[in-house]
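Writing this down once: the sequence line spells out the residues, with the fold written below as integer tokens. This is how one looks:
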Amino acid sequence: MKNYRHSCRIHLTVCAAQIVTDIDNTILNSEPRLRRTLQELGLEELLPELLARYDGVKALLKPEEQEKFYQLFLSERYLHLDEPLPGAAEALRALREAGYRIVYLTGRHDAPGDSMRRGTELWLVEHGFPHPGDGSTLLRMKPRRGMDDRQFKEEALRELAKLGSLHAGIGDRPSDIEAYLHYGIPAILIRGDDRHPGDGVRAVAGGVEVVRDWSELEALLLRSG
């Protein structure tokens, strides 16, 4: 990973070396929002199973339940319940100060009349994260709710590559890592508490940096920079 730090401090918008990160369960824990959504739907007993698998919503909820679930979970209604992961804000601020542009690349959607942008930006500000208003941070969101996350992220990465080098990509799901690898971006898988064990994660872990928390991740990126 090439050192862009000193030159980018002065000319950030020109060299724009970028660190890309997912949001949900990468910089924050969305379990409280998930729990509250299930409570409202009378399905709280499904929480342990939903936390244990990536495909839990499609596997465990009926089609009509899925629609109601996403209308609540993927809205601004309970975003305030999301909890920042320890060290995430501090690490991203340190990386920004080191001269990197921070890019949030998320499956959250931003469609006219159906957007999670305002709530997402307010949450970032409230919890001390780099945010789109600081001049060195971007927030890329799906243009519509139903768009495939992998498709969206690969298209977004292609556009981001035109703005500057992509120094690293951070995520918690195999689909995140696969999207980064597709464009040859150094990928970092943050495993957290291993709530999602399984072949999907292990399959992409070969040749990918795997970290357990943001302090480890920060040290890795600043050392490699």
